[in-house]
Design a protein that fits this description.
The structure holds two protein chains of two kinds. Chain A is of the alpha/beta class. Chain A has two domains: 140 residues, Rossmann fold, CATH 3.40.50.300; 75 residues, Helicase, Ruva Protein, domain 3 (Orthogonal Bundle). Chain A is built from eight helices and ten strands. In chain A, the strands form two sheets. Chain A has a six-stranded mixed sheet with strand order 6-7-8-3-9-10, sandwiched between helices. In chain A, strands 2-1-4-5 form a four-stranded antiparallel sheet, with helices on one face. In chain A, helix 6 links the parallel strand 7 and strand 8. Chain B is mostly helical. Chain B has one domain. Chain B is built from eleven helices and no strands. Chain B is elongated. The two termini of chain B are 27 Å apart. The chains are: A alpha/beta, B mainly alpha. Chains A and B meet through helix 2, strand 6 and helix 3 of A and helix 1 of B.
Chain lengths: 247, 255
């Protein structure tokens, strides 16, 4: 079975010199792949490249073995993602926002109400179903965005800092949801700088620094934070010696 | 160009537009504003003897319903393009302003279908504004005691409706500007530029063939503009509609 998502030597450099350089990355069936890095390392840029929000200057993005630009409708209907901001319109209530997200994700009209009901329950949003999105707290707005990502049962889930603004209960709900979906065969790519949370859910952890993947971390190890900083500092030192950065 | 799930995209955009306080408020302000201002000027013209009445007498020729609608056409020509441009800009540009645009990528519904759906829904909203404006004019005209509209009055009201609808087509470039600028300001700037270009074209004596001013000149004086000159208006939404859909289909979140 093809990987849910594959990036092959993907490069995109911005005029400022920042960007992503020759990144290879796989999100396999049934696994959570976490992407960790400092602010500005290129995590969001990489996720945007994976979803077609940016086009690579070289390299290739494959979704279930198909180049992203030629991905079929049924493959696109199997993607759920949250990058930047939730797909939530302030003037619409929570239930209507989810119904529109369902339709945009290819859920048939006859199945929309059921999918919305399940998503409301999964993210603990039932009591807020009739509230306009603009009246929600930041955390509940994030929950709404996550519900919109998950309600169509995606096989590939891509999330950028998904625990942002979530309260502890929301973090647990999301963690359980992602682990359950991975166990059911979904592939999950999640960026985070919360190493504790990553350690709880990830099967693989890739470290991104200055736009390049510099290595992996073993999720089970107790000193994850130390291992992360060791990897980043070692890479910075290597780049300094090579003259890529000033000392 | 294939446009899969266009029906879904139109349904989604319609639902968003229906809930929009911005679009609702603009519709009410435009329709009632044109009707009330036209009524006030019609009263000033019939009752007054000052400078205002003299100026209005120069601008309009009829009396009763036709004079009233002629005033409405003058106001519509100047104001409605700006209002339609703002509505068109908001429908497109709000996705960038609210950062919801990222959620529209990697969907079975492609960005080009969403873009076309936005144009369709924006034009439908313009049609609703037109209906509201004509209804408001009818109400104000009756309230002013012009009596039941006769054939001439109905033709004048139909011309006012046609002016609004043709002007709606002229607002499509605002969607393109909002897309390129990833926000609202350039779209509104485009609306202002269109209004100014229409004024300049009229002053320069080229108003009949300039798409931005031809509908207004036709509505005010139908024999002054030929069918061919009026048909040029259709080029604007076609060209800028294609440009807008193409810009969305190549969209990148690179700034």
């Amino acid at each position: 079975m093809a990987d849910r998502l594959s990036l092959r030597a993907v490069t995109r450099i911005f005029p400022s010199g920042d960007g992503i350089r020759a990144v290879d990355l796989d999100v396999v069936v049934g696994q959570v792949h976490a992407l960790v890095g400092l602010n500005g390392a290129g995590k969001t840029t990489l996720l945007r490249l994976a979803l077609g929000m940016l086009r690579p200057q070289s390299g290739e993005v494959l979704v279930e073995g198909q180049p992203l630009a030629r991905t079929r409708t049924e493959q696109l209907a199997g993607i759920g993602h949250l990058i930047d901001a939730p797909l939530a319109y302030g003037e619409l209530d929570v239930r209507t926002n989810l119904a529109l997200a369902a339709r945009l994700h290819g859920v048939a009209r006859s199945r929309t109400a059921g999918a919305v009901g399940d998503a409301l329950a999964e993210l603990g949003l039932e009591s807020l179903a009739t509230r306009r999105a603009r009246t929600l707290s930041l955390g509940n707005r994030q929950r709404l965005g996550l519900a919109a990502v998950l309600l169509h049962g995606p096989r590939l889930i891509v999330l950028d800092e998904p625990t942002n603004a979530l309260d502890p209960r929301g973090v647990i709900l999301l963690r359980e949801s992602l682990l359950r979906r991975a166990a059911e065969g979904s592939g999950v790519l999640v960026s985070s700088h919360h190493l504790d949370e990553v350690a709880r859910i990830a099967d693989r952890i890739s470290v991104l620094n200055a736009g390049r993947l510099i290595g992996t971390l073993a999720p089970g190890r107790a000193d994850l934070e130390r291992a992360f900083f060791d990897a980043v500092y070692a890479d910075d030192e290597k780049r300094r010696e090579a003259g890529d950065i000033e000392s | 160009m294939r446009l899969p799930f266009l029906g879904v995209a139109i349904a989604v955009e319609t639902r968003k537009a229906a809930a929009s306080g911005t679009l609702r408020a603009t519709m009410v302000l435009v329709g009632s504003g044109i009707a009330i201002l036209s009524g006030a000027f019609a009263l000033a013209r019939s009752n007054g003897s000052g400078i205002m009445a003299a100026k209005l007498a120069l601008l309009t020729h009829g009396s009763g319903w036709t004079g009233f609608i002629e005033i409405a056409e003058q106001i519509t020509a100047a104001g409605v393009l700006l209002a339609f441009g703002i509505g068109m800009t908001w429908i497109v540009g709000r996705e960038f302003l609210d950062h919801t645009v990222s959620g529209l990528f990697a969907l079975p519904v492609p960005l080009r279908s969403i873009a076309l759906a936005k144009l369709v829904v924006a034009l439908l909203w313009c049609a609703l504004v037109t209906l509201f404006t004509v209804a408001a004019l009818a109400v104000v005209g009756l309230a002013l005691g012009f009596g039941a509209p006769d054939g001439d009055a109905l033709r004048a009201l139909a011309r006012e409706a046609a002016l609004c609808l043709l002007t709606a087509l002229l607002s499509v470039p605002c969607a393109w500007a909002a897309t390129l600028s990833r926000g609202l300001l350039a779209g509104i700037g485009m609306a202002v530029a269109l209004v100014v270009s229409a004024q300049v074209a009229v002053v320069a004596g080229m108003g009949e063939w300039w798409p931005g001013s031809a509908p207004a000149l036709w509505a005010i004086q139908p024999e002054a503009v030929s069918a061919g000159e009026l048909a040029l208006v259709g080029v604007v939404p076609l060209v800028f509609g294609v440009l807008t859909v193409a810009a969305w289909s190549r969209l990148e979140l690179d700034r």
